Amino acid sequence: MIRAGFVGLGRMGQAIAGRVLGGGHDLIVHNRTRAKAADLEAAGARVADDVAGACEAREVVMTMVADDAALRAVTLDPGGLRDSLEAGAIHMVMGTHGVSVVRELAAAHREAGQVLVAAPVLGRPDVAAAGKLGIVAAGPPEAVEFCAPLFEVIGRRTFRAGEAPESATAVKLTNNFLLGCAIEVMGEAFSLARSYDVEPEVLFEVMTDGLFASPAYSVYGRIIADQSYDDVGFTTTLGLKDANLILSAAELAHLPLPSASVWRDRLLGAIAHGDAERDWAVVAREQARAGGLDG
Ligand SMILES: NC(=O)c1ccc[n+]([C@@H]2O[C@H](COP(=O)([O-])OP(=O)(O)OC[C@H]3O[C@@H](n4cnc5c(N)ncnc54)[C@H](OP(=O)(O)O)[C@@H]3O)[C@@H](O)[C@H]2O)c1
């Protein structure tokens, strides 16, 4: 049993914290908006009023917050994880963040005698609730090993990316780049089929039965075929955040990623049309609009 803390109880955080609690670990949770802790409290988690409270006597504190600004705030602000974690304790960063912030916070924790492990996850909130996430972990090997009992209850498989935490970040961003561009291309494909009065269902069946028989195509193809963008697993706002993180990582490495630029523009267009809080597959509607198929 690990003495664990959890900061950030959004869609993913609530599901993952629920798995940690259900796995028999001793858990203190904290969320900026306290109401989101109600279900976990009812299930037996202790709720802290601030980040420091979620770090008290903890061996590992997980963070699952939206973006780099939020991660910096919960880590570096007075009373944040850096001030509050005990020496030797682990900050497990589970959100999808940029390579620069992960490097910066790893150094800040090192100076304070603490350890940062990056463990971004693959899968949507329903997958998280089922304990079936993929986890990409990187950090000092003993620290990653110490977290293994948590990975066991959270995920179906842990991929070890190396000793530098930003290696896991790079893998996660790369995977989201592939997925985001796949969604963009699916949007283009569905609009081409619709231009010839083909029912979306027909393309969905053909696509998922053959070369593209994979969860990426079946989950997102389903959403696009049904236009069920209000059933939100991952918002367009967070998709744009990831596109920007991917392009920043590429820029740091002097690497052109032309497809990422096209996809990022489509996310921006969706946000301009009021779809910021809809599912990020709504880029398909942008493409349909561009082809005169939707208003
Ligand atoms: N959803 C997915 O399918 C998915 C899959 C893999 C990875 N991820 C990644 O996981 C992370 C969380 O995603 P999510 O879908 O759970 O997002 P979400 O539902 O929007 O939750 C965001 C969380 O961040 C907290 N937060 C935001 N700004 C903050 C700040 N300045 N200070 C403190 N807390 C702050 C929110 O607190 P409040 O409740 O107070 O707003 C909330 O707990 C993101 O990095 C995302 O890219 C998501």
Any idea how many domains? Answer: 2
Strand-pairing-aware structural class: alpha/beta
Beta percentage is 5-15%
Q: What is the total tally of β strands? A: 9
Instruction: Give me the side-by-side strand order of the main sheet.
Output: 3-2-1-4-5-6
- pLDDT under 50 segments (min length 5)? none
Instruction: Supply the CATH superfamily name of the largest domain.
Output: NAD(P)-binding Rossmann-like Domain
The number of helical runs is 15
Molecular structure report:
It is a single chain. With 295 residues, this protein is an alpha/beta fold. It folds into two domains: 3-163, Rossmann fold, CATH 3.40.50.720; 171-290, N-(1-d-carboxylethyl)-l-norvaline Dehydrogenase, domain 2. Helices cover 54% and strands 14% of the residues. The protein has helices at 11-22, 38-42, 51-55, 68-76, 81-84, 99-111, 125-129, 141-146, 148-154, 165-195, 200-209, 215-226, 236-252, 258-272, 283-290, and strands at 3-7, 26-30, 46-47, 60-63, 90-93, 115-118, 121-122, 133-138, 155-162. Helix 6 (99-111) runs antiparallel to helix 10, helix 10 crosses helix 12 (215-226) and helix 10 crosses helix 14 (258-272). The longest helix has 31 residues, at 165-195. It is globular and about 65 Å long. The model has no long low-confidence stretch (mean pLDDT 96). Bound molecules: NADP nicotinamide-adenine-dinucleotide phosphate (NAP). NADP nicotinamide-adenine-dinucleotide phosphate is lined by residues 8-13, 31-33, 36, 64-66, 70, 73-74, 95-96, 121, 124-125, 233-234, 238.
